[in-house]
């Protein structure tokens, strides 16, 4: 919201950003009250991958929104690391959120008695060109998912691989393609 004001070369009135943010959140909750916005197969994918990999979320959404969806979907326990918009200064495609996510996931893994993670062991799954570009700038591998944009756009942004959905991916196929 602040970015929109800046792009319009305007200064928001006192508390206007908060007011618009709260109104947007209320409308968003109303829209998803009956049906969560999860792509087909994503719940099964998360459950499969969590058996072999530590999972994290980096999102330009508000933490409250992320946690709300994860709680409603019964997926909270699979994500020990969440980095949200409120924890970064810069938006994607800036790599800041990916760097913070990588560092937080690495710290989590070390607390679980794993060896430190290297960049080549971390895979970002993204459905937007700015997200792919940010991941690549952070020196991370990226799997593009064509939820909202074409495979060509994701490849042009630097995706290492592209898929239409996550249903067919298994931990072993992830290792073969990305490690």
Question: Which features does this protein show?
Answer:
179 residues, mainly alpha, two-stranded parallel ribbon, 8 helices, 5 strands, 45% helix, globular
Tell me what you see in this structure.
Helices cover 45% and strands 10% of the residues. The protein contains 8 helices and 5 strands; from the N terminus they run αααβαβαβαβαβα. β4, α7 (151-156) and β5 form a beta-alpha-beta unit. The mean pLDDT is 93. The radius of gyration is 17 Å and the shape is globular. With 179 residues, the chain is mainly alpha-helical. A 3-stranded parallel beta sheet has the order 3-4-5. A two-stranded parallel ribbon has the order 1-2.
- Strand proportion, as a percent range, falls in 5-15%
* Number of DSSP helical runs: 8
pLDDT average, as an integer?
A: 93
Q: What is the distance, rounded to the nearest whole angstrom, between the alpha carbons of the first and last residues? A: 38 Å
Question: Which H/E pattern describes the elements?
Answer: HHHEHEHEHEHEH
Major sheet characteristics: 3 strands, parallel
The tally of strands reads: 5
- The low-confidence parts are none
């Amino acid at each position: 919201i602040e970015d929109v004001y800046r792009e319009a070369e305007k200064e928001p009135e006192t508390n206007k950003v908060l007011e618009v943010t709260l109104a947007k959140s209320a409308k968003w909750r109303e829209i998803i009250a009956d049906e969560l916005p999860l792509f087909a197969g994503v719940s099964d994918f998360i459950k499969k991958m969590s058996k072999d990999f530590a999972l994290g979320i980096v999102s330009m959404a508000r933490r409250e929104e992320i946690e709300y969806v994860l709680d409603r979907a019964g997926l909270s326990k699979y994500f020990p690391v969440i980095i949200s918009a409120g924890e970064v200064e810069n938006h994607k495609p800036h790599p800041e959120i990916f760097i913070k996510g990588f560092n937080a996931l690495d710290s989590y893994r070390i607390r679980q008695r794993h060896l430190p993670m290297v960049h080549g062991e971390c895979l970002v799954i993204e459905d937007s060109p700015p997200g792919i570009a940010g991941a690549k700038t952070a020196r991370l591998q990226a799997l593009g998912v064509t939820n909202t944009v074409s495979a060509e756009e994701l490849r042009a942004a630097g995706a290492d691989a592209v898929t239409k959905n996550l249903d067919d991916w298994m931990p072993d196929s992830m290792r073969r393609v990305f490690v």
